[in-house]
Amino acid sequence: QVQLVESGGGLVQPGGSLRLSCAVSGSIFSINRMGWYRQAPGKQRELVAALTPTGNTNYADSVKGRFTISRDNAKKTVYLQMNSLKPDDTAVYYCNLRNLGTFVDYWGQGTQVTVSS
């Protein structure tokens, strides 16, 4: 059974940084696409960043140049480094694993990120 557990959210001032982590179990981590999504109150869930097994990345325009997605295959963990945070980045952030063979999506429980002074 695939499980994703996020950590690293919290309250940060505008301009600050946070690093989110997502530990994966129960899957062949290295062959899946990993991603981070977020959902703000009253808004739809949106893709923030994605990382393919070959290292290709995709970022939402709103976070380009500020956020970086990375993975450690040995630790079966994916990270989202978030710099220069803005109040508009406030949301629940969800880790996503997409099985590229079956195209089934798995989700973590979400972690709250609040950017406020």
Describe this structure in words.
The chain is mostly beta strands and 117 residues long. 0% of the residues lie in helices and 51% in strands. Strands 2, 4, 5, 6, 9, 10 and 11 form a 7-stranded mixed beta sheet that branches. The radius of gyration is 13 Å and the shape is globular. The mean pLDDT is 94.
Distance between the termini: 40 Å
User: Structural class given helices, strands, pairing?
Assistant: mainly beta
Helix content: under 10%
Report the oligomer: single chain
Q: List low-confidence stretches.
A: none
Order of helices and strands: EEEEEEEEEEE
Global outline = globular
Q: Counting H and I runs of at least 4 residues, what is the number of helices?
A: 0
Can you summarize this structure?
This protein is 0% helix and 51% strand. It contains no helices and 11 strands.
